[in-house]
Amino acid sequence: MSGKRRRDEEESESFEQRLVNLVVRIGDKNVQDLPLHLETLASTLSPDIKGDSRDLIIDSIFDAVRALQPKSAVYGTLVGLINVQHSAVAEEAVSKLQSELQEALDDHAPLSIRGLCRFAAELMNARVLTCASVASLLESLLNVEAEEGVLPCRAEWFATLVLDCLILCGSQLSTREGERFTALLAKLQAFADGRATRPMPSLLRPFGADTHKDEVMEHFDALWAVVSECAEDGSWSFPCLLTPWRVFTEQFIGAESYELAPVTIPRHTTGCTYPSLRRLRLFQELPSLAGRDRRHSGESDAEMADDDEAFPAPLPLGERVLIEEYTWMLVNAFADSHKDGAKALAWQQEAFGLESSVSYVEVVFSMLMLLPTPRNKLVYYSCLLLDFSKLFTPVPHLLARAVNKLFSELPRLDVELRSRFVDWLSLHVSHFGFNLTPFGSAWAAHLSPPGTPPAERTAYDAFVTTLLQKCVALSYHERVQRELPEVLAEHMPPKPAGATAWAALSVSDTEPGAIGTKSAALLSRLRAKAEREDVLSWLDRDIDRAQLPVLVVHTLLDAGAKSVSHLEKLLDKFDWLVTHASADAAARVQTLAAVGSYWNARPAMVWLTLRKLLQYKLTDATAIVGWLTVSDAGRPLLETWGAWDAIGEQLSLAASSQRSATKAAEAEAERHAAMHADEHSGAERRA
């Protein structure tokens, strides 16, 4: 009996998953035959949508609408076809749209708000929603500008939302609600004119006040350029704009349309964010900059010709902006899986038949270099660019060109973005054998001559030095030096070399009680694979407790100094030894001090070692911050490379741990409350 029940459950789960897959994957393989596939899907879902699977189908459509926003037209048309056969189901979807959109507005979930508004525009195209009710929705979104004391970024975000919807439904809205459409355009024109008098704050520009208007394109400006051009020409058609609803216009006209109930837009509250795509134009050389970039690039005439030949042809304005929008949507949607995100973008390029590599690289760089902070972690964008390098032939060339472009503008580039740029580049080249050869000739003209005093070094020199330091931290000195172009050799950091407490040998250091002799004895026991209990017993018996942290830490660091992987292996194998040496708070501080004294001449290695100790849970953030801020030996390290990055990491980890503990406590409280309620209910029944 239990076996049969299990088979029934598996079959039910399989059936539900098949339904979800049918909805989610529609249009993934063939855009040309999309209307036929949609019609087939609507017929396939018809028997199930009348039964117990109605909620599952509707929920799947709404999940796809939020996550797969470039396919908004697909799901709007699907609901339109369902409306022809099952009007009650479409009416339920309209009601759900209103409640979901209101909830997203109340929670200020910007990506969901955008996906649901796009869905409303497409439902209007499919005549599921009345044109008047969608016009009212767009008007209410645009009216945010009239709020008293409204933040410019808030007003602009809602205006951008309206522009996004107009690109989808402008053709229908201009025909069926001409006066209201014209009024919307007039308000948007007035908003655009007002923006011209309020330039973007310099702190948000990649090159500060020196940012040229053609180097960055704001989200509103890009969409307004498309909408105004379409409204002027009267053409709302693009190769990458899906419009499957046009095929079914006659069927939709005969079906019932529904009013979208009004939504209330809450006022701004603390915590609300307004994400936008601030486009960094890396491949649009300005007339005033082009000659300078070429002169100092170090490229020969032949190399320049090859470069131009390999560079993909630019897309027209409309296609370029829309592809960038789709890319931004999908990159945000697949933040939990870079591989799925890259696959979705590969499908997009194949489906529309447009060479999109330039847009893909520019959009990901724009998101990575967004000020004040990117939406996702740097490693996500790095993984995406690596995936692009494998999937799209032009991308490696484009990345090299983007790197050289940003490098040539380093003195103008925001300091925070320089740090982000070097972090990404060190991670990227680590996947290609730390090969910096593609950049050597282009960077050479910017670097100071050999022997230049440190005080006269430029931002270019500092960037290359920091890059090589980070590369060494990701691997080891010999590995990075092996592929290093000669022109960059002078910036290579010295090979990391620690200083043990017994480095300066004297006659007394060879005596049985000297610390150098004790270190040799400890290392001999570890290499001989002595039992843990025997080693700890010997340490407790023969080693002064105050001397123990230095002895253990310096011995392990010296044995693992060849590379990071050597150190990791030792910490993984002998974590018990470090734990024994740092048994209390005072000993933990001594352990950190021993790390600092060993790598005294190489501060970068101090931070790397501390990260590894944290990774293996051999120290804690409190001990690190305390040592840095209180200890005479620790405080000077606050002035070195990586110090505040390390402290920031500890604060982030502490905040993350606090959030996890809070969630666990809340879950436990809810569990106890439920148990208490059950007990109370049982007692009442017994009474």
TrEMBL record:
Keywords: mRNA processing, mRNA splicing, Nucleus. Residues 665-687 have a biased composition (Basic and acidic residues). GO terms for molecular function: mRNA binding; RNA cap binding. It comes from Chrysotila carterae. This is MIF4G domain-containing protein. The keyword Metal-binding does not apply. It is found in: Nucleus. InterPro entries: ARM-type_fold, CBP80, MIF4G-like_typ-1, MIF4G-like_typ-2, MIF4G-like_typ-3. One of its GO terms (cellular component) is nuclear cap binding complex. SMART domains: MIF4G. Belongs to the NCBP1 family. Residues 658-687 are annotated as: Disordered. Residues 16-224 form the MIF4G domain. The lineage of its organism: Eukaryota, Haptista, Haptophyta, Prymnesiophyceae, Isochrysidales. PANTHER family: CAP BINDING PROTEIN (PTHR12412), NUCLEAR CAP-BINDING PROTEIN SUBUNIT 1 (PTHR12412:SF2). Transmembrane segments: none annotated.
